[in-house]
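Two entries, shown back to back:
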Amino acid sequence: MYLVILGVILLLLKLLEFGPVGQWSWFAVLAPFAGAALWWAWADASGYNKRRAMEAMDARKAARRQRNMDAIGTGPKRK
């Protein structure tokens, strides 16, 4: 996501010909978009996205289980 935001900012600066970015080549300005595409391809191919989704689902499941245990009074004992 950071590479896409950087790419949009650089693209706007290039189109407005603002500062030194206006003089850069188009390859340098569009490079963050290529980097984002490579990152997403690697993340999908390596299973990184799937692992992160599974970790988030496990965390939600554990929180839901703990809320249910507290609601029926079988959670940790309080002093």
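entry 2 starts here
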Amino acid sequence: MRARALALLAAALAAAACTVGPDFRVPDPPAVDRYTPAPPPAAPGMPRLVRDRDIPAQWWEVFGSAELDALVRRALAQGPTLDQARARLVQAQELRTARHGAVTYPQFDATFGAQRQRIDPATFGFPQAPNPGPFNVFSVGGSVAYRFDLFGGARRDLEALAAEVDYQAYELEAARLTLAANVVVTAIRRASLAAQAEVVAGILAAQRRQLAIVERRHGDGGVAWLDVQNQRALVAQTEALLPVLEAQRAQAGHVLAVLMGDPPGAASVPEVRLAELHLPAELPLRLPSELVRQRPDIRASEALLHKASANVGVATADQYPKLVVTGAFSSGQLDLSHLLGSGINIWNIGVNALQPVFRHDELEARRRAAVAAYDQAAAGYRIVVLQGLQNVADVLRALEADALTLAARSEQAARADDAFRIARARYDAGGVSLLAVLDAERTRLQAELDRVQAQAARNADAAALFQALGGGWQSGAEP
């Protein structure tokens, strides 16, 4: 009867339990419909921005490069940064699982003891009693305890741990997105440096041929020694560019190796050629109000805000009473063979209630600290959202500038190429000297170098747009 009464009391208390503290509400999305003060850019030659188009999960495939796709897939498969993020996620999941079991189910512990004892009756005032000598004591038993979550402190704690799991899951997605974007941008830069080195080598060859002509003409008395020195200085200046470009290209390869989890000295990094990268005619663009659900860093900041909200509930519940039901039983015998067959000879059951009395100021201060932590997380969330909007706005303007710059550089390269062909034709007809032809060739190659740099910047900023929009992780299952 006594046990049944306690069980009914426990059921009643569980039914009456409530959850104190604020219930988390997802912040409202930004109430704007565009990223920049002016309408979205639409410069001539710029990819058309299409709203409400899903971003592909493997967004880097839009560049149409098998080598680039292989680099990104290798990095995602074996990059150490992702292993670190995965381990953090598993840690958060296991901590939540452990806490869930601790607060949801009664805690039961089994005990077994064996002791060798000796008792002198004279110690207890019985000097005439016979001394039994050393003897053994064996015991087996168990204990059970259950903490009633009357005011939801444990449930809020589990809520905070679940939010931590969400945070680590979104951090993993953010790490994947950052890794893929870093590989793409680094591969584009490496391809650009290789293309620039080819153009500079062509410029250097033209300048050396031009120097040979100037030196021959100086020997014939046709030009001054100053012209020879100026041309030699120009050749030396161009020669100094090649080692820098080659070193930067090698360093970009080292970065790619590390991103893929390989030592730079043992990595096999496929070459991506700039001319083989093709930017699509259309790029996706979602509304600013949708960006907060697309970017994993914003979702991670939202999870931190959720965790801070749950911690306010934990601190609030600490101010209210706590109730714990405990019980224990055991069997103790002098002979091990009688231990399990003689039944339970020791047991107890009890109810413990705890009400903080003289700790109100301390607990209230802890609750206010939790509220301040929530306010801090809310401000951090707003900052991350604003930075995300700024990121997209900056990339859109960069793409507009890239399109205009590439158009101008392409026009410059086309006109320089026309000038070179005209000079070559006039040279073949005997109208100009070879020096004029070489000078036109140098100008053509310099214009091509400028065009290569503009093309690389355009591709890199297109990759930056995919990253700014949150990549395509939403195409799969949510974390």
